[in-house]
Design brief:
Helix content: 10-25%
CATH superfamily: Acetamidase/Formamidase-like domains
Oligomer: single chain
CATH architecture: Roll
Structural class: alpha+beta
Number of strands: 9
Number of domains: 1
Order of helices and strands: EEEEEEEHHEE
Length: about 160
């Protein structure tokens, strides 16, 4: 899986070790072969960064490292017009994935789930209550990384299986 994938902010500096709204150190197991990672773009050319590839990494990555490897990553970049999601989201062949980051686990998980509920409302035409019930029945809330490193935010993600249409 790819641990770091992100674009450059319009202002300021982002370090690849820090997750944020444009990606960077997500450390989310859903970023793997066949995934489509949707990143906001704030600057021309996006200045995409990719790295920190793992042969394996647990959900949680509490030590700050997984099984780090050298790797070649093959990818295609497409620019999509339309509304921008507030954070990185991922489309897998079998599921949608929303992501979040923050200093505390509860708030980070809550944000990832809230984004998934909004996605289910938009994609499936569900009411807010229906989307919460659907997520409770079939979705998963997971921890991306919660390394005990001062100053590095946690990441979390919510997954929901694509329904047969």
């Amino acid at each position: 899986m790819v641990g770091v994938i992100g674009t450059t902010p319009a202002t300021g500096i982002i370090y690849t070790g820090h997750p944020g709204p444009l990606g960077s150190n997500l450390d989310i197991n859903a970023v793997t072969i066949g995934s489509r990672v949707h990143l906001p773009v704030e600057v021309e050319g996006a200045l995409l960064a990719i790295g920190d590839v793992h042969a394996n990494m647990s959900d949680g990555e509490v030590s700050g490292t997984g099984v780090e490897i050298n790797a070649e990553v093959t990818f295609t970049v497409d620019l999509e017009a339309g509304p921008v999601w507030p954070r990185v989201w991922i489309e897998r062949p079998d599921a949608w994935v929303t992501t979040s980051y923050g200093p505390d686990l509860e708030g980070t998980v809550r944000s990832a789930v809230e984004d998934m509920v909004r996605m289910l409302e938009a994609r499936l035409g569900l009411s807010r209550e229906e989307a919460f019930l659907a997520f409770s029945a079939a979705g998963d809330a997971r921890i991306g990384q919660c390394a005990f490193i001062p100053g590095i935010d946690l990441t979390a993600y919510a997954t929901f299986p694509k329904l047969a249409q």
